[in-house]
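Memo to structure team: turn this sequence into structure tokens by end of day. - J.P.
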Amino acid sequence: MATIANFTAWCVQNHWGYGFFSEATWAVIMIGIGSLLALLYVLRGNNIFIGFIVIWALFGIESKRRMTGDYGSESVITATLIGMGLIFAAIIIQLALRRRKELPEPQLFSRP
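Reply from structure team:
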């Protein structure tokens, strides 16, 4: 998520991207990309911790948008809630599969 935020900040600084999309649409697109990447890490990479980190980042975006109430905040808030819900569901699925021992435990440290 930090890389996506840095890329978006760079785009804003260089006035790139807003010719095609509004600020809210751009935010929804970036939230969608970040959520999809998190889903891949959780479901394919068997890494629920990345999912929790992205949920925390999306919660921060959602709470900031609720406080400011800017134009287009409703679509951004909806996108963050959908992203958090999907990632949380993927985490629950991973934990259920791990409990059934169908997935190996994640390796926190590599062994020689």
